[in-house]
Amino acid sequence: MPIPPYKAPRRTSYDIVIVGGAAVGSSTAYWMSQAIGPETSILVVERDSTFEFSSTALSTSAIRQQYSNPINVKISQFGIEIINSFPERMAKFFPGEPAPDLGFKEHGYLYCTSPEGVDSARARVELQRSLGAHTVWLTPDQIRTQFPYVNVEDLGGASWGAREEGWFDSMGLLNGFRRAARGSGVEYIDNCVTGLTLAGGKVASATLSTGQTVSCGTLVNAAGPRAQQVAQMAGLSIPVEPRKRYSFVFSSATPIPGKMPNVIDLSGTFVRPEGELFLTGNTPQMEIAKDYTDFEIDHAEFDDYIWPSLYHRIPDFDALKVQQAWTGHYEYNVLDHNGIVGYHPRVTNFMFANGFSGHGLQQSPAVGRAVSELILQGAFQTLDLSPFCYERVERNEPFLEEAVI
Fold this sequence. Notes:
By secondary structure, this protein is α/β, with parallel strands linked by helices. It has helices at 23-35, 55-58, 70-90, 118-130, 140-146, 170-183, 227-233, 300-313, 360-377, 391-395, and strands at residues 13-19, 42-46, 62-63, 109-113, 135-138, 157-161, 166-167, 187-190, 193-199, 202-208, 213-221, 240-252, 262-264, 270-274, 277-281, 320-333, 340-343, 350-354. It has two domains: 13-58 and 170-238 and 336-395, FAD/NAD(P)-binding domain; 106-164 and 241-333, D-Amino Acid Oxidase, subunit A, domain 2 (D-Amino Acid Oxidase, Chain A, domain 2). Strands 1, 2, 8, 9, 10, 11, 17 and 18 form an eight-stranded mixed beta sheet that branches. It has an eight-stranded mixed beta sheet with strand order 5-6-4-13-14-15-12-16, sandwiched between helices. A hairpin with a 4-residue loop joins strand 10 (202-208) and strand 11. Residues 15-374 form the FAD dependent oxidoreductase domain. One of its GO terms (molecular function) is oxidoreductase activity. This is FAD-binding oxidoreductase.
């Protein structure tokens, strides 16, 4: 796993050190840099600025409002707002060239529901609609009319995000946030935090792979699947571990007509169009923690589980050919699949922004803004993310999200 040569920081002391420069870390750096002046120093330490193996680069880059918790719906609504306004927001950081358009494909999610799950699913639809989402409930006959290629024989219905759901350019979002942060004075370095020194109940400094030690006023853990590694450096622990997710791009001998949504099968397999091809994945059968460097793909997952699910739900997928495949990592929160956002109660300048369990990219705009508010103003100012607090981990009180893929 080659990485760029590590570089030393320009200073020996920073007000804020962010560990991890992918979507969550760069969103945090962006929001902070827009809220403060150049007199505040921010350092982002990223172990691999190619982001080749980052969860951001290897994600399926989708966003939805179909959640069971109101706060997750609101987080996604803000994410949609940022995606739609991104070119205008980034324009001043791209002088003389086009600002990044994230190419939002507003196709929606189609969540298939079993007959036994109809009441719960319809209740989630009503919750989402009460918050301003455009989710609609479709009966089996309505599914057949809207999406005639979907097999509805074993379905009780489906919820469909008719607007403001879909997929977008993940690296466009990351590169925009990163460029804007750097253009506003944030320092990024290719390096790796190897240790933290504590004093008086706070992180006093971070040691880097190149041997330098930098002191910091606040440390933000935005290390994605490596979040537990960083927490351990401060003598802390969070229930976050790397879980593998396989993505397969395939061609189909039979085309799918119309504007196909991201179809979520009862089995957990999803499929959506990618131009003339299709992208699919699932929750692997061997759902266990993996090594941080394990990106080996299991093609049997497609042959034995994904393809049968695809063919059952969409019979036109009877002749498929895999064209590309890759493995990414979820930063999986085994407690409740929701993010951990906020300060540690005893190491009082250690900020968590971790454990989003596959939702980190779509939640990064709101999470970065929230972390910035906590650091700079001492409290959430826009969306109240206090249910994501670290303290629930110590209390072993899950903040559950039912709609997990």
